[in-house]
Design brief:
By secondary structure, the chain is an alpha+beta fold. Among the domains are: about 1-90 and about 200-215, Hypothetical protein af1432 (Orthogonal Bundle); about 155-200 and about 215-290, Growth Hormone, Chain: A (Up-down Bundle). It is about 55% helix and about 10% strand. The strands form two sheets. It has a four-stranded mixed beta sheet with strand order 1-2-5-6. Strands 3-7-4 form a three-stranded antiparallel beta sheet, sandwiched between helices.
Length: about 350
């Protein structure tokens, strides 16, 4: 993308190229185990963007302030605002990357996008990233592909069930650990289960960032395999369900479930698993998922016409789909064990 922008005559120095590449590559470094699924399970009230910023700041200290420009681009404080749009926007390099990669590895061909063609048509106008008029149909395909990937992969019912089961599992593990229960865990996982880590502690205790950097999926999965045989019924059952892929079933609707349906499920779970109503909550997940495939007015995807006019894709597209995709889609769901 940066090479294409330079080729088209936009002024970008080699230092800016290096800094932008660093910001693009590091912008998601703050993800913990299992990515978004555990964003608030191990630390409280801290999103991965904040942790990414903390990592980049620490790396800047290690490399004698050589990442200062990358930090400015990452935080959108650099005067060339279009560079930040390559890092984080509705048409950033991350989205182009994960759509193609995830489409390939999941076998969902509808998610494939021709990113080479899209990148060949980017330019800068008014300090903003734009797509040349001839690329309008490629942009439409990009937005449609993202919608298909979200509902067929990222928000698929199996993915939702697995993610929320892991969240409930870690909630129970932390509850037991904080109550003084002996629990197998790697040293770094044990630290996060034994402590309530909030923004203030993350800011004041340097070693927390180092410990977070050591956490990965293997810490969680290895613990789950051992917890399968733990005497705590809730921890054991949830661990077995995830490891053996005996996932909760899920009821997804376009409207909220009525309270009677939820209470009925809760009573059945409580009865069949011989649990109190409070403990039965670990086996029932009631939530909603919403997605905007495109948000007009926020980091717009802009089309540059031959006469120099710049227009939002939602206005420029002759496809009704794009205007429809700019409205949020919300689905409500309840997850619960297969035996109910």
């Amino acid at each position: 993308a940066l090479a294409e922008l330079k080729f088209k005559g936009n002024s970008i120095s080699e230092q800016e190229v290096t800094a932008a590449n660093i910001a693009i590559l590091l912008h998601d470094i703050g993800h913990g185990p299992y990515s978004h699924a555990l964003e608030n399970s191990l630390v409280s009230g801290i999103n991965h963007e904040w942790i990414s910023s903390a990592f980049i700041t620490e790396l800047n200290n290690i490399f004698d302030n050589k990442l200062e420009l990358a930090i400015q681009i990452f935080n959108n404080t650099y005067h060339k605002k279009f560079l930040h749009e390559l890092v984080s926007s509705q048409f950033d390099m991350d989205r182009l990357d994960y759509l193609k990669r995830d489409s390939f590895f999941t076998g969902v061909s509808e998610g494939a996008v021709n990113y080479e063609r899209l990148l060949s048509m980017i330019d800068v106008a008014n300090d903003q990233i734009v797509i040349e008029e001839k690329g309008i149909y490629s942009v439409e395909k990009f937005i449609t592909a993202r919608r298909l990937m979200y509902w067929q992969v990222y928000l698929h019912k199996t993915v939702l069930a697995a993610e929320f089961m892991i969240m409930k599992l870690l909630k129970r593990a932390k509850q037991l650990k904080m109550a003084g229960e002996e629990l197998f865990a790697s040293p770094v996982l044990d630290f996060f289960l034994s402590n309530n880590i909030d923004l203030e502690r993350f800011n004041n205790e340097v070693e927390i960032l180092e410990k977070f950097a050591q956490l990965d999926d293997y810490d969680i999965f290895a613990a789950m395999k051992v917890w399968m045989n733990h005497p705590d019924k809730i921890l054991s059952a949830l661990s077995k369900g995830i490891v053996n892929r005996n996932l909760f079933k899920i009821d997804i609707r376009n409207e909220k479930h009525d309270e009677g349906f939820y209470e009925k499920i809760k009573n059945q779970v409580s009865e069949k698993l011989s649990l109190s109503e409070e403990d039965a909550e670990f086996f029932i997940i009631r939530d909603k998922t919403s997605s905007f495939m495109y948000k007009p007015g926020k980091d717009n995807i802009r089309i540059l016409f031959k006469d120099g006019k710049v227009c939002d894709i939602a206005e420029a597209s002759d496809q009704l789909n794009i205007r429809l995709l700019s409205k949020p889609t919300t689905k409500y769901f309840i997850c619960y064990p297969q035996l109910v």
